[in-house]
Amino acid sequence: MTVSAAALQAFRAALGPQGVSDDPDVLAPLLTDWRGVMTGRTPLLLRPSCTAEVAALVQIARAHHVPLVPQGGNTGLVQGGTPAEDGSEVLVSLQRMARIRALDADGFSMTAEAGVVLADVQTAAVAAGRMFPLSLGSEGSARIGGLVATNAGGVHVLRHGTMRALVLGLEAVLPDGQIFNDLAPLRKDNSGYDLKQLLIGSEGTLGIITAATLKLVPAPRARAVAWIGLESPANALRLLAHVRAASADQVSSFELMPRVGLDLVLQHIPGSRDPLPTPHPWAVLLETTCEQDVLTDALSHPSVADAVIAASQTQADALWRLRETLPEAERIDGRAAKHDIALPVGAVPAFLDAAAVAVEAILPGARVLAFGHLGDGNIHYNVRRPAAMGPARFVEHIPSLSAQVHDVVTRFGGSISAEHGIGRLKRAELARLADPAKLSAMRAIKAALDPLGLFNPGRIL
Amino acid sequence: MTVSAAALQAFRAALGPQGVSDDPDVLAPLLTDWRGVMTGRTPLLLRPSCTAEVAALVQIARAHHVPLVPQGGNTGLVQGGTPAEDGSEVLVSLQRMARIRALDADGFSMTAEAGVVLADVQTAAVAAGRMFPLSLGSEGSARIGGLVATNAGGVHVLRHGTMRALVLGLEAVLPDGQIFNDLAPLRKDNSGYDLKQLLIGSEGTLGIITAATLKLVPAPRARAVAWIGLESPANALRLLAHVRAASADQVSSFELMPRVGLDLVLQHIPGSRDPLPTPHPWAVLLETTCEQDVLTDALSHPSVADAVIAASQTQADALWRLRETLPEAERIDGRAAKHDIALPVGAVPAFLDAAAVAVEAILPGARVLAFGHLGDGNIHYNVRRPAAMGPARFVEHIPSLSAQVHDVVTRFGGSISAEHGIGRLKRAELARLADPAKLSAMRAIKAALDPLGLFNPGRIL
Q1: Would you call B222 an interface residue with chain A, using a CB distance cutoff of 8 Å?
Q2: Chain-wide mean pLDDT for chain A?
Q3: Which of A24, A39, A81, B398 could form a disulfide with A32 if both were Cys (CB 3.0 to 4.6 A apart)?
Q4: A428 touches chain B (CB under 8 A)
Q5: Are A335 and A395 in contact (CB under 8 A)?
Q6: Which residue of chain A is at minimal alpha-carbon distance from B147?
Q7: Mean pLDDT score, B137-156
Q8: Strand residue runs (E) in A154-201
Q9: How confident is the model over B443-454, as a mean pLDDT?
Q10: pLDDT, position A418
Q11: Taking 80 as the threshold, does the pLDDT of residue B137 lie above it?
Q12: Which of A182, A413, A426 sits opposite B435 (nearest CB)?
């Protein structure tokens, strides 16, 4: 399948010279995925500047049967926004649609186009005395359209929810070429099916998101950050329940890290140091928006082995760096098989035990590094090669290892994709493990809304 | 269309004598809607006791082409759960499925079957030291299945969201007869389309909800309730923004009431008295979960004309009664044309001005009573007859009056159904006013998931 010359000509005519590109230097950074795992091709890059242009290019795609791959900041981790290797798909970058259309501080809402970078949304909110609570590692590059399309999560989900909970309104172009206009910042709306919620997390397969109205929250009055040493994940869960209750639900982050993770950071990241005088099997990084004395009281809980509360912004930042540099420390240490999984929060300790047994059975000596957003049940379950096994041999084992891990996740009622999505990377695993009723309903919905199969084909389904 | 004897026989055989009824005394309370506006008929009441029985009855309905109307506590306000007058539909009551399957206090979740009454969920949560924050007038009768199917709202949406934000997992029988099993309490899950969110608010037209896993929150540490006199809705909005910021977003209710509403309560409800010494054009009932001194400080804001903070639980209850008895006082005063609408919060003052002009133009002398959940932009916009017009003449005017109100709502980007749903009552208005792209997508989804059109037909679409 190649895109016809007539289609390319129609795209060029509709979008004008600013709206298209086939310059290899412009294209290159958009064709390789964030992890550097795959590089695709496209006959033409489309760069619409407004919603009407997106609708126009969808009409052309329909007329010429051209598959479209929408892309925001190209920070996805599951190859959802990278065009196929064979050049059969046209890449649609939303980066030129980067306007904040409205900000209403008293109404706690902001309307941003798909191409606005998350950090710019955060900055605009702060300038208005508000906060946009989505926060994640790639916030300097990730853009609103992609963040909505993948229902992004991050480090404040415990308090504020995923993107799904932060979208009050949405604008998108549907596969039939119509513009779905639902941007009004309504806090309640029961007028029919919530198409907005269906589009959130659909990874560009049901619509191209062009703008979103986002929920803002009051800027926090206080911030208290603690580093806590504990004996076990079970103790961490008990502590989480206790602090949530004691702080009137003002816990914004609750990040779990095993000793082996902290050791990797201390070994590989210059300037890092253990916040506690003696080692503990597990650590929790806790951030709350309550006053420090409330947190001090809460940390007298018996589940806490030792703890330190940051006395300054600088100390708080240093504690956060221990958590944020863990992926980098891990990368320096060598390749791992990574799993972005979610479990019922209360099932995390039992899952960790069961998964360790399964990993040891299939790959004796493999080293598990499980860390992440315990408050959301979202564990980054990474497995490094056994010391005695070479990197190339290890790579061969990853598919069967991952299948094992996903099997255990499914057994505990968990999700094989907590926050990264399915894309192309996890499509086969989704088909293997998803609830059959859900799968057939998803396929029916896809066929109903995109009967030509032109919107990000081969992603998710 | 009548339901065949063969179909009725198959239902009886599948569900047993406990699972069906045609006793008029059993049927009567289920056949008239909550407002007493319509009474339907059904050849047989189905009362499944478990999810497998619901799946079995759906298979029989498919084989015999029998339309099904699911019903919970029969508290709906839009005739969504009442079978048609012609007896062509079979009523499915979920009231026998009334088990709380699981409660995990440390995991902040509870799994309840569709027939559990909301008040029982609240009580079970409190017994475990937690809170289930959905709260509304009919909570002693409304059941979880219906509350999920209609995405119920109520008085704590500002802080905790609608039902949509409180459902972590869902179980439902789909129109193809498969059981959709997604009950695990996952806080993050990006494994494909969020079918759960599509079913929430779909009013039984896409699936019969059999159980839900609900999000619990910590029991509040404190409660402070105030009654505030103000000059205008614009001042109320300014106050809301101020208190949200000052209390670290601990505002749980923010209810607006005009003087005419308070006067109705004082006139018709025995024992009620004005909490403030002098009259004010508008009042706000404010509930927060912060300490009382934080609230006292916040109420020194210039938007406040006068205010009183409840000094005891008894006083707080008395203030809430002024708000909760307003619908009853209004009923005693005479019939009103009611509109359950939502607007962008910041647009409420301008909407009230514009709607008043529109109402006066079409029905001079009509008296507007607009009150409700200002924090959610959810206004109960009720219009009473002009003093000089008789009740019967007024009823004739209601359809054109409502169309006018809905037109103004739509002009301001609002919703013609904030929390009650569409059902049969608002179906024509939805078809007239909804975004065309949304309507056609909704129709495509309905046809894809329920091609035989057997699930609550004629509701919403």
Answers
A1: yes
A2: 96
A3: A39
A4: no
A5: yes
A6: A190
A7: 95
A8: 167-173, 179-182
A9: 98
A10: 96
A11: yes
A12: A182
Please answer yes or no on whether B345 and A237 come within 8 Å at the CB atom.
Answer: no
In angstroms, the separation between the Cα of residue B387 and the nearest Cα of chain A is: 33
Residue A291 has pLDDT above 90, yes or no: no
Q: Which helix (H) or strand (E) holds A297?
A: helix A292-298
Residue of B nearest to A108 (CA): B241
Contact residues on chain A for B222, CB-CB shorter than 8 A: 248
Which of A373, A76, A163, A68 shows the shortest CA–CA distance to B194?
A163
Q: Which DSSP letter does residue B211 get?
A: E
Query: Quick check: B126 pLDDT over 90?
Result: yes
ipTM: 0.96
Q: pLDDT (tens digit, 9 = 90+) per residue, A417-437?
A: 999 999 999 999 999 999 999
Banded model confidence at residue A389, pLDDT cuts 50, 70, 90: very high
> What value, to the nearest 5°, has the Cα angle with vertex B208 and ends B202 and B211?
105
Average pLDDT over residues A402-410: 98
List B residues 90-109 in contact with A (Cβ-Cβ < 8 A). 104-109
Interface of B with A in 153-172 (CB under 8 A): 153, 157-158, 161-162, 164-165
**Of the partner residues A105, A129, A157, the one whose CB lies closest to the CB of residue B188:** A157
Per-residue pLDDT band at A290 (split at 50, 70, 90): confident
Residue B221 has pLDDT above 90, yes or no: no
What tens digit of pLDDT does each residue of B42-101 get?
Answer: 999 999 999 999 999 999 999 999 999 999 999 999 999 999 999 999 999 999 999 999
A303 touches B: beta carbon within 8 Å: no
Amino acid identity, position B90: V
Residue A378 with chain B: CB contacts under 8 Å: 187-188
Cα–Cα distance for residue pair A442/A68, rounded to 1 Å: 20
> Is the Cβ of A221 closer than 8 Å to some Cβ of chain B?
yes
Query: DSSP strand E in B34-183: where?
Result: 45-46, 68-71, 90-93, 100-104, 109-113, 130-131, 167-173, 179-182
Q: How far is B403 from chain A (nearest CA, A)?
A: 15
Closest by alpha carbon to B143, among B76, B50, B83, B56? B76
The answer to whether B189 contacts chain A (CB < 8 Å) is: yes
User: Could you tell me where the beta strands, DSSP code E, fall in A276-408?
Assistant: 282-288, 306-309, 336-337, 340-342, 367-373, 378-384
Mutate to test the interface with A, among B59, B158, B193 (most CBs of A within 10 A): B193
* A345 and A374 Cβ atoms separated by less than 8 Å: yes
Residues in Cβ contact with B14 at an 8 Å cutoff, skipping those fewer than 6 apart: B53, B56, B57, B60
Residue B217 in contact with partner chain A when CB distance is under 8 A: yes
Q: Tell me the backbone φ, ψ of residue B20, rounded to 5 degrees.
A: -135, 165
Q: Do A421 and B190 touch (CB under 8 A)?
A: yes
Q: Record the tokens describing residue B102, joined without a space.
A: 């699981």
A255 close to B (CB below 8 A): no
Nearest beta carbon to residue B193 from set A183, A250, A445: A445
First to last CA, chain B: 20
Rounded mean pLDDT of A375-389?
94
Find where tokens 């009004």 sit.
A184
Alpha carbons A304 and B130: distance in angstroms, whole number = 22
Average pLDDT on A347-358 reads: 97
* Cross-chain residue pair B346–A107, CB shorter than 8 Å: yes
| Reported pTM | 0.97
Q: Which residues of chain B does A181 touch, with a Cβ-Cβ cutoff of 8 Å?
A: 435, 437
Q: Choose the weakest-confidence range: B120-124, B159-163, B331-335.
A: B331-335
Residue A79, token pair as written in the block: 């190859």
Q: Which residue of A has its CA nearest to B418?
A: A189
